[in-house]
Specification:
This protein is of the alpha/beta class. Helices cover about 30% and strands about 30% of the residues. The chain folds into two domains: about 160 residues, 3-Layer(aba) Sandwich (Rossmann fold); about 120 residues, Riboflavin kinase-like (Elongation Factor Tu (Ef-tu), domain 3), CATH 2.40.30. It is built from ten helices and 16 strands. The strands form four sheets. Strands 1-4-3-2-5-8 form a six-stranded parallel sheet, with helices on both faces. Strands 11-12-15-14-13-16 form a six-stranded antiparallel barrel.
Amino acid sequence: MVVYTNYKEAKKGNPYCIALGSFDGVHLGHQKLIERVVNKGKELDCNSMVYTFMDHPKKVLTPNCSHEMITQNLQRVKIMESFGLDAVYLEDFQNIMKMDAETFVKDILVSHFNIKCAVAGYNFTFGNKKDGNAEILKRYGDLYGFEVAIVDAVKIKGNIVSSSFIRDMIKSGKVDDVKEYLGRNYSIDGQVIHGKKIGEKIGIRTANLSINKDLVVPKPGVYFTDTIVNNNVYKSVTNIGTNPTFNGNKMNIETHIIDFQEDLYGKNIEIFFLKWNREEKAFNNASELKKQILDDINNRLNY
């Protein structure tokens, strides 16, 4: 799969069947779009592409706000590639943010990509004032000579699978339920940084994670997790919180990787959240905290 960020390079792969959207999370609804566009590409003998954004439009329109994204670009691309796509185009939203719906279709989809089929979700909107929707996309398809396939909502237990629904579940700590909608366990990846070395002082080392401030973070507490280090999976226990036993006031993400002793400072790891275990709380002393963490580790091993 090829990842493009400029039209000239992408044009070499013409013509395309293109799935359109933000694809934050690449959840089961998004996966249905990707499967459809891959199949249409084979049917029409052209390359399949996801056309999405380098940065979510909300980040461009409201740069000073945190946008609680579910996935970063590297992870999104990795997931998309697993479905057999030929290409992903990461658009700079500023290139198109002032275009009306027809200009976007004519100058981007038709001119740059020689589109043969557009695949979009039932709630897809486009154009600088969101003047385009799924039905209008169909009209432009008729006008400019390409097929349009609209994908219905995916529902699980009566709930429409959407990024906002999944985001709320993550923030509520319902990480064990997220997999059913996301198609995988929710994960956060980042670089291991130096912390206060509290874990080291009590004999239970933890890796403190520096993450993108725009990522959605599960609610504070202790979680059963898996942690990937150098493509190897280890059982782990992860705390999200402020270390109240030691009067902390800054929110941290730190994970104890079970039966792992290597130095991780400066390395990237990925933490998969499996289940919320308990609230974070202040203990009377370090010994009580250590006893609780050992119980957490034992419970994780038995999970």
